[in-house]
Amino acid sequence: QVQLVESGGGLVQAGGSLKLSCAASGSTFSSNVMAWYRQAPGKQRELVAHITPRGITGYSDSVKGRFTISRDNAKNTVYLQMNSLKPEDTALYLCTHSFRDWGQGTQVTVSS
User: Fold this and answer.
1) How far are the Cα atoms of 11, 57, 69, 94, 110 from residue 29, in angstroms, in the given order?
2) What confidence tens digit (pLDDT) does each residue in 88-99 have?
């Protein structure tokens, strides 16, 4: 089982930026897909972005053009750069390893 620890969340004004990190334990990081989800109160968990072992990325329509997912296999870390943040981006952001292992999440709050 892979352990995941997210960091980088916080409170930011609309239009601002944050960069989330997710550090993974274990030796399988580089060979598996990584993804970021988010969950807002009263809403279903939403897939935000994913990145394959070779670096192919995908984004939800709601964040395309504003968020960028990347990974550093040498550091077993995946990142989510979030720009032009909106109040509707407020949520708990969770990373997942191969859609099987999950972190505890980091809270992002965007004020208007």
Assistant:
1) 29, 16, 15, 16, 30
2) 999 999 999 999
